[in-house]
Amino acid sequence: MNNPSLSSLPGLLEPWYRENRRDLPWRTDREPYHIWLSEIMLQQTRVEAVKGYYARFLDALPNVAALAACDDDSLHKLWEGLGYYSRVRNLKKAAEVIQATYGGVFPREYRQVRALPGIGDYTAGAICSIAFGLPTPAVDGNVLRLLSRLTDDATPIDTPAAKAAMRRLLEEIYPESNPGDFTQALMELGATLCGPNRKPACEGCPCREICLGYQRGTAEALPVKSPKKERRQEDRTVFILSCDGRYALEKRPNRGLLAGLWQFPNIAGHYSTEESLRQLEKLDVHPRQLLREVKRKHIFTHIQWNMTGIYLEVSEPGGNFSWFTPEEIHTQAALPTAFRQFWEEIDNV
Ligand code: SF4
To answer: pTM for this one?
Structure first.
């Protein structure tokens, strides 16, 4: 990795960023709580999808103290559909630490910010540079792609060593004035002109004159990633049980995948309709009418669930379940997307 011209990157990027930055709700101020929340939401989620969640979350929980005091069900409901729910649980844990250790004031030192639950190198770098003006790089996928093209570097970017090397590279060129704007300019270029899943738009790029990938014609083939491991496939049978306008839900365990969220009752494996009815009898549920069966899948990072959803009317609200009205499901129960897709079919049953 070598590009001696990289030192001119801040000077090239900053005017371009001032002209071209997108108006985003979290760019209206430098409040660390706002930057932190937006960065956590933006991990794994598109900007357009985040905007609504961000506004609703801040409406309900306008500051760190409100976040620390929020009960888990309400918190999950605010996050419902964003996925990767450990992110919001860590937000709350970090808010509790800020309340208990820093008297409710967001810490200003990189080391202290990095030590908060759920905050890694990237998020700490983003908060400290944007909110506090520290020269702390924030290296995410967009920035890795951009740097690998600027330096014509074919090292796989998804290794800790590659990330650390890119961070060191940036540390050497971080500007003293407006480091937060440089952080955001790198993210912006990496998300737009030099964005993912398409040909880089080099013609309009302010960095063309120093970009080795552009000059050598390798940019489109970069970045290189390590081969992906196959996802584990799991079959599940999901029961959408109704009784007099109420629906059976249960809480998932407090640890592991989708911890603490609500779900429709379900069992591992693919069962025929007859076998399913026998399984339900064991759970003390007595089906009266089979309404519908649908197949759905849901992809997690390392696992794929191949699900059969069986809609059944039952004679009484038995089993060890909680029975919710549609209104209660809408307002109180955070149903992760894996299960919500069955709820969205309910009108077709
Ligand atoms: S010149 Fe092209 S490849 Fe290089 S940074 Fe700009 S958009 Fe990316």
So the answer is: 0.87
